[in-house]
Design brief:
991 residues, mainly beta, Jelly Rolls, Immunoglobulin-like, TIM Barrel, 12-stranded antiparallel beta sheet, 57 strands, 12% helix
Length: 991
């Protein structure tokens, strides 16, 4: 009896568990009634004008609940009262429209890791504690005609995060997860003539979220378009058009496989399929299709002497597929395009169309600063155009499939794409076995590979199929690999966590030396760095060193920068609701927000701010070094003759027009050669400069400091030293600092000119412990110990020499030479007296001017900010700009605004100009705030306008760029504290 009772209780417990297990916390339930994935179907007149597609985008009724228990459970009923509901924009993310909290987190899950549960109680300070698993309830209404009811009605969701149910007219239609791929449902039998109610219930997190642990803002809702497709009862369900060039590329065989399904109530007889391509029409065989059946029709064609598709020359063959009824009339018609190409790994070499193409890449998240995960067409166009203009030819869709329009642009504009599956479980660790080996999660993994390839299989731009990012290893990943290969054996799968599942060997964030050494060890497949050159904040040093290695080794396929755009959100400074619009521009009352700015916990701060462009798509200064290093044409000069060389085997030198500009300044002769577009393209106009190089053919004549009168300026000795000049005076205090430069009764200094060796950290340095390593230098300038001051004069010049010891273990001397008009030559000498002195952050001096010096003019590298390890492509020239444009407001304030190889610089007010002439090339900064202010979180918090902070340096520590969590600036771009250093410059003032 006890045994029977035990069995009954056990069965009751099991039954109760089965009843309470949610679909959205059950990895075995991936979807309910969802239609199979298929290729993008493009109507001939574009979907926006087509009666075959009804857009459901716009304002939906909306209710937000903090957790599933509080959601309205029967809102889908037709008699449910919606009068008090809000309205929300679809597509969009609800967190950006005033509901719940955006969370930025990199590796960890925003909920307690306890798969498949996403509702385990978290720590009380977590956002998920009070909002355990928020639910968004959506309702819209749709009018359907009697004619539409005679067709097959398909409800299409482009993307919903993370899991959702859908009802039509009170009847549950189905369920789906896999946020970044489309979900479609046949709603024909649920619709009626007249008004129809569509209800959608969206869960912020689901078991699917365990495979969506990407480094991005965690946002929710219906974030891509919703459409009703009105299809014939017999229609094209899917198609695959494939080209295969022969070995010498003189012919290409084209095969079209078209799936046709019959969703009607009777046999469909005499149906035909037609392919129109290359000016030819290919007829398929006539078919009969039984009710409920799907059959496949094959058509073949050969293109003679085909134009090959590549990123440099994206030649496309438009084609159309037509479905014909038994009378020969067209019942359905789809247009698209074909790119003839071959992508292969031949031993250790990656080849496109038989050529060793280098992938000059970047990673890109789908991100808009106002609409979040939804990116509109204009922003896609802007992104791909800016990439093309920067000579980027390779895009990784990190870390999920993007909206279909991006791939169309890449097909047409020319961009190689690594299409990435929506699979990352980094919260369990890189290359973890938890998710990779758990059989309960196998189908969830395979589903994400299937959705990726099925949708994008016809895009010529896709050259690599990524199984995901920073996820698991094991049988589940092997199943993804096998699935991709089952579609087409020529497809090249890629995976970063283990080379077993990848056509290429990957290494993330190598240094140039690591890349060189490790690529040499790989013998059976090409090498690629899927992520490198971490572009966080002021970054991207040593790009040339990377590409010297890549070009020298045929086994290195290329590398992709992390990443394209800063994932900042446009948040009002007063904390009010974000403005929802397609505008990228930041308003005066907004700032770029990152992790933690919404009170989101846990968060990873500004680690989402690592783009080549800002959230508004304005290029950062380091965008331009990428453009230069990635340029397909390289120039050299031999015996005065400019030599051109193509670095891309699909690009000919003759593909461009060329021009040269010659300038002479102070005997310095420079020649700039430019390669320009010959014709207009979709992404740039004729004449746009794609490649350039500057050659210095005659050197600059640095000034020689001279007397302006036979009489040297007099010195009045007080508690300080006042040097009297024709224009005013120069005052040097008893510590040897210039405290005043008086011109016609005005002192232009706010703080003294004195030695300064400290450099605020950039993001790379802050995460790598830079400040701790070089901490002894922070106060060295102000803590220097004066040994002597000597005053003398000779041949019309007064000299004041100051000798010091520095607390790091070095001798330091300053010599001021002042002529009668008040010009000041400053010379600094540094000599170490002890061993093991840390690297010097910068070697120079600093002074602060009155705040009215707000115009900058200089001759040096520019116009954009540049640093010793990031100055290629920043030409030496004469530049003029407001002070506000000389500095750079990174999303997180940090060191910025340096200019290298400056011959001279002037700062002007309305009535006065200060000029600095180097006696050798200088590095210069000018800010309207001080270094001590840079500890704030956002630029609008900087205390500006009290003075102009001017740094006059011989050299400055490079920005680095391998990664932002440990790797250091290359040694050749640092300043050795154990070597001697000397420099000099001249200060002059004019009114």
């Amino acid at each position: 009896m006890k045994r029977i009772l035990f069995i009954l209780i056990s069965l009751l417990v099991l039954q109760t568990q089965a009843q309470t297990t949610h679909d959205w916390e059950n990895p075995s339930v991936l979807s309910i009634n969802k239609l199979p994935y298929h290729a993008t179907l493009q109507l001939p007149s574009k979907w926006k004008e087509c009666k075959e597609i009804v857009s459901l985008d716009g304002q939906w009724l909306f209710h937000w609940s903090r957790n599933p228990e509080e959601r309205p459970t029967d809102f889908y009923r037709e008699d449910y009262d919606l009068s008090n509901w809000d309205k929300i924009a679809v597509p969009g993310n609800w967190q950006l429209q005033g509901y719940g909290t955006p969370i930025y987190i990199n590796i960890n899950y925003p909920f307690v890791r306890n798969r498949p549960s996403v509702t385990t109680e978290p720590p009380k300070h977590w956002t998920a504690y009070g909002n355990r698993n928020p639910v968004g309830s959506y309702v819209t209404f749709l009018d359907v005609t009697k004619e539409m009811l005679k067709q097959n009605l398909i409800l299409h969701f482009g993307g919903v995060h993370s899991a959702f149910y859908v009802w039509v007219n009170g009847q549950r239609v189905g369920y789906s997860q896999n946020s970044m791929s489309p979900a479609e449902f046949d709603v024909t039998k649920y619709m009626r003539a007249g008004r129809n109610k569509i209800a959608v219930e969206v869960y912020r997190w689901s078991d699917g979220s365990y495979l969506e642990d990407q480094d991005m803002w965690r946002l929710s809702g219906i974030f891509r378009s919703v459409q009703l497709w009105v299809r014939p009862l017999v229609h094209i369900a899917d198609y695959r058009v494939k080209s295969e060039p022969n070995t010498d590329f003189t012919k290409a065989s084209v095969t079209a496989a078209v799936k046709i399904c019959n969703m009607g109530s009777k046999m469909s007889k005499g149906m035909g399929v037609r392919l129109n391509i290359d000016g030819k029409t290919i007829e398929g065989k006539v078919m009969d299709i039984a009710v409920g059946d799907t059959i496949s029709a094959s058509l073949e064609y050969t293109i003679d002497n085909p134009h090959l598709w590549s990123a440099a020359k994206p030649d496309l063959y438009p084609f159309s597929i037509e479905l014909l009824d038994n009378k020969g009339s067209i019942s359905e018609h789809f247009d698209y395009h074909l790119g003839v190409k071959r992508v292969e790994c031949v031993g250790e070499v990656f080849k496109v169309n038989g050529k060793n193409v280098k992938l000059r890449g970047v990673n890109r998240h789908d991100h808009h600063p106002r609409t979040g995960r939804y990116v509109d067409d204009a922003t896609y166009e802007k992104d791909i155009a800016l990439m093309k203009q920067a000579n980027i030819n390779f895009l990784r869709t990190s870390h999920y499939p993007d909206r279909e329009y991006l791939y169309e642009l890449c097909d047409r504009y020319g961009m190689y794409v690594m299409d990435e599956a929506n699979q990352e479980s980094h919260g369990y660790g890189y290359a973890n076995k938890d998710m990779g080996e758990d059989p309960a999660w196998k189908e969830a993994h395979v589903d994400r590979a299937t959705s990726l390839v099925e949708r994008d299989k016809n895009h010529p731009c896709v050259i690599l199929w990524s199984l995901g990012n920073e996820g698991g290893v094991g049988p589940n990943i092997q199943a993804m690999y096998d699935k991709v290969k089952s579609f087409d054996s020529s497809f090249l799968p890629f995976y970063d966590c283990h080379p077993r599942y990848s056509s290429l060997y990957d290494e993330g964030y190598p240094t140039p030396k690591m890349m060189k050494d490790n690529a040499a060890k790989v013998k059976d497949k090409p090498y690629i760095a899927r992520e490198y050159a971490h572009a966080m904040g002021n970054s991207m040093g040593n790009m040339k060193e990377y590409w010297d290695v890549i070009y020298a080794d045929s086994s290195i396929a290329g590398a992709a920068i992390w990443d394209w755009v800063d994932q900042g959100l446009a948040k009002p400074k007063d904390g009010s609701k974000m403005r929802l619009s397609s505008s990228l521009e930041l308003m005066d009352d907004e700032f770029w927000a990152y992790g933690g700015d919404f009170g989101d916990k846990p968060n990873d701060g500004n680690f989402c701010i690592n783009g080549l462009v800002a959230p508004d798509r304005k290029p950062h200064p380091h965008y331009y070094v990428v453009k230069h290093v990635y340029q397909p044409i390289h120039f050299s000069m031999i015996d005065g003759k400019i030599i051109k060389k193509s670095m891309d085997p699909t690009v000919d030198v003759d593909d461009f027009d060329y021009a040269t500009d010659t300038t002479i300044v102070s005997n310095e002769k420079t020649i700039i050669v430019k390669a320009m577009l010959k014709d207009d393209t979709p992404w740039a106009k004729k004449g746009f400069v794609m490649a350039s190089e500057q050659f210095v053919v005659e050197l600059y004549s640095f000034p020689v400091f001279t007397a302006t009168s036979r009489k040297a300026p007099k010195v009045k000795k007080r508690e300080d030293y006042e040097v009297l000049t024709e224009k005013g005076s120069v005052v040097i205090d008893d510590k040897g600092s210039i405290t005043e430069i008086n011109v016609n009764g005005r002192n232009i200094l706010k703080t003294p000119l004195e030695p300064y060796f400290w450099k605020p950290e950039n993001d790379n340095q802050e995460k790598a412990g830079f400040a701790k390593r070089v901490a002894p230098w922070e106060k060295v300038g102000e803590n220097r110990q004066l040994k002597s001051i000597k005053v003398s004069s000779s041949k019309g010049i007064t000299f004041i020499k100051c000798a010091y010891t520095l607390p790091v273990g070095a001798d330091y001397e300053l010599c001021y030479s002042i002529n009668s008009v008040g010009d000041i030559k400053v010379e600094a000498d540094y000599r170490p007296t002890q061993a093991d002195i840390p690297l010097i952050p910068k070697f120079g001096m600093r002074m602060r001017l009155t705040s009215d010096f707000n115009k900058v003019e200089y001759y040096g590298r520019g116009p954009w900010e540049n640093y010793p390890d990031r100055k290629l492509g920043y030409d030496i020239g004469h530049y003029t700009m407001p002070l506000a444009d000389f500095q750079v407001d990174y999303v997180r304030p940090q060191d910025n605004g340096n200019r290298c190889d400056v011959r001279w610089l002037s700062l002007s007010s309305d009535d006065c100009t200060l000029r600095i002439d180097g006696c050798q090339p200088l590095c210069l900064h000018a800010w309207n705030y001080g270094e001590e202010n840079l500890n704030v979180k956002h630029p609008h918090e900087l205390k500006r306008g009290e003075f102009v902070n001017l740094n006059i340096d011989l050299n400055i520590h490079g920005v680095g760029g391998a990664d932002t969590w440990g790797k250091r600036t290359l040694p050749e771009y640092t300043i050795d504290g154990n070597q001697s250093h000397h420099y000099s410059f001249v200060i002059s003032v004019e009114q």
